[in-house]
Each structure stands twice: as structure tokens, then as C-alpha cells.
Amino acid sequence: METTIRSRVDDELKNQFETILQDCGLTVSTALRLFAENVVRNEGLPFEITRKPSARLRESMRQAEAIIANERPAFNNVDELIMSMNNGKP
Q1: Is residue 33 situated within a structural domain?
Q2: Three-class SS of residue 63?
Q3: What is the pTM of this model?
Q4: Is the dihedral of CA 14, 17, 22, 27 positive or negative?
Q5: C-alpha to C-alpha distance for 33 and 39, rounded to whole angstroms
Q6: Which of 10, 50, 53, 64 could pair covalently with 57 via S-S, beta carbons 3.0-4.6 A apart?
Q7: Number of structural domains in the chain
Q8: 62 lies in some domain
Q9: Rounded to an integer, what distance in angstroms lies between the CA atom of residue 49 and that of residue 52?
Q10: Per residue in 32-78, pLDDT tens?
Q11: DSSP secondary-structure letter at 72?
């Protein structure tokens, strides 16, 4: 049995992707199937993600680690949580 996977990307990215794959003798479907097989075989992504997280993400990660270490919520109420997600704005 086969299934369909759909993904949305902008036109320019799709065109560049298809051009490179065509040069390799692959279709988008074949390339995605190869990617899926590699993820399963490696039990994870078959490549390293190297982009550094943004300052905001690093701060969120630090806060999450502190919450885990203290085993308690970092916010006293929902309003504080919402303000933290909106850069201090309610």
C-alpha cells in the first residue's frame, strides 16, 4: 500500500529543488522516498542540523532547562506566560 505526502514550499525553492534533482537523475518523489528511507535507517535525520538557534530560542531553551531543573513552573499565572510569548506585551 502506498500513501501520499504533501508539503508546501514557495515556487522558487521548488523550481531550484527540481532542477538540482533533475541534474542528479531524480524526481521529487524519488528524492523524498530516499530521504524517508534514510531517516528510518538512521533512526533520525541523515544529516546534521548546523544552524545556530536565535537569541530568543536560546533564552527559551535556558528557561526550559531551568524549569526542568527546578521542577516548577516559571510563570505565576497565565498572564505572565502570555506576556513572555509576546515580548512583554499583554
Answers
A1: yes
A2: helix
A3: 0.52
A4: negative
A5: 10
A6: 53
A7: 2
A8: yes
A9: 9
A10: 999 999 999 989 988 777 677 778 888 888 888 877 787 666 677 88
A11: S
